[in-house]
Amino acid sequence: MIKDNNTYNILIIEDNLGDFILIEEFIYDRIESPSITHTKSFASTKLLNQTAQQKFDVILLDLSLPDKSGEELITEMNTLNWGCPIIVLTGYTDIEFSIKSLSLGAADYLLKDEINASALYKSIVYSIERRKANIQIAESEKRFSNLFQLSPQPMWLYDIETLKFIQVNKAAIDLYGYTFNEFLKMTILDLRPATENFKPNQPLSNQVINNDKVFNDKIKHLKKNKEIIDVEVYSSAIIINNNEYRLTIAIDVTEKILYENKMTKAIIKTQEDERNEIGGELHDNICQLLVASQMSLGMLKNAIDAHSEKYYEQCKEYISESLQEIRNLSHRLSPAINEDINIEDSFRKLLNNFDIEGKYFIVFKFDKQLNDYQVNKDIHINLYRILQEHLNNIIKYANCKSVQVNLQVNHHNIVLQIIDDGVGFEISKANSGIGFANMRRRAELFGGNFNLYSAKGKGCKLNVTIPIQIKDSIEQV
């Protein structure tokens, strides 16, 4: 038989010499070179604990010693803090308590009359390895607890079925303003503002997590003081006591988004200024040069012979077409949007220019309630650019016959809706495009939402919603 060559330091606490010798023989039968220490009472064991320098891997404890026995013995042994598993050795009369001893901290119990070399060796090895595993688990839990509690970022643990908070760290308490006990009475949905709606027929858990083990998202959260903040949420599945929860980190990016929006507005203002400059140059300079050329050409008409007349007319026609194209381009680059031009008129003019050839059946519905609001010039420009961008998409890709544009007010939000009956497309592919990304960004700059609905053969519907009360101005950047 192959013996275990590992070195084991074993303490046997047994007052019966015959039982000790038998146990010792069983140990030597399976372990090559064990280090065995023997005590006969609790008192001598306690003294050994105070003087011995070595650490034991396992303790074999007779449940009935001369000076202590039973529950008192187990309890007192725990106070010695050996830091190793204790295997209780007992007779039949003590079997009921032996089972109870497991709840008091014993690693295992063995009936003396049934002990053999294999059973004893198996119990020793299993108890030692289980102790190591428990230590590793405890250390891992401590590291997790430290990372969780000491993290500078808000973290929490929640139940994936009920969405209730199970644990939150100090950073979360500091950021959101709720106490620990208040958090434990809440679900993660209580952090969502009322403006973020959930689908009533879909399980809540499916609306706040996806099927992936790890995901992240940018959402809005509501603090106890009713302040709304922007957060980046990172969440992953975690198993604790055979139950699946989700561990979440929430990073407050409110200031970051405000700064990014400020910079983006500055960029948009620069772009608009450049467009206005280019549009003005085209209208004031290039157009004037073409008009002058047209007038000069007219002065040459009487000097042209019959053979050259057709070239004269052709040249005149080219100049007229160029003038019209440049005017159209100038208007697209630099629309006449100011305090004197309302959003209804600018939209109607854009739609008229869009369908000069009369290819589409266009319906424009304007909500007269908008006249009661002071539409911010910057919102006006960005909605105009969104409509302009999407109309260009319709010309290039939609292959449609009709276009409907709705501009209305809904709960103090201005809502732009553009619908066509074209060939449609796959939303996943469209969302990765630069054009739609720019439109979405323009809407989000003013606290708005951008939603796109389409499918192959089903046309397209675009919805942009922007709070009408926002007064931020690009000029203030």
Structure description:
The chain has 477 residues and is α/β, with parallel strands linked by helices. It has four domains: 9-147, Response regulator (Rossmann fold), CATH 3.40.50; 151-252, PAS domain (Beta-Lactamase, 2-Layer Sandwich), CATH 3.30.450; 254-334; 338-477, Histidine kinase-like ATPase, C-terminal domain (Heat Shock Protein 90, 2-Layer Sandwich), CATH 3.30.565.10. 45% of the residues lie in helices and 21% in strands. It contains 14 helices and 15 strands. The strands form three sheets. The protein has a five-stranded parallel sheet, sandwiched between helices. Strands 7-6-10-9-8 form a five-stranded antiparallel sheet, with helices on both faces. A five-stranded mixed sheet has the order 11-12-13-15-14, covered by helices on one side. β12 (402-410) and β13 (413-420) form a beta hairpin. The chain is rod-shaped. It starts with 8 loop residues before the first strand and ends in a 10-residue tail after the last strand. Mean pLDDT is 83; it is low at 198-207 and 470-477.
Explain briefly what this protein structure is.
It contains 14 helices and 15 strands. The protein is α/β, with parallel strands linked by helices and 477 residues long. It folds into 4 domains: 139 residues, Rossmann fold; 102 residues, 2-Layer Sandwich (Beta-Lactamase); 81 residues; 140 residues, Heat Shock Protein 90 (2-Layer Sandwich).
Name a few traits of the molecule:
single chain; 477 residues; alpha/beta; Rossmann fold; Beta-Lactamase; 14 helices
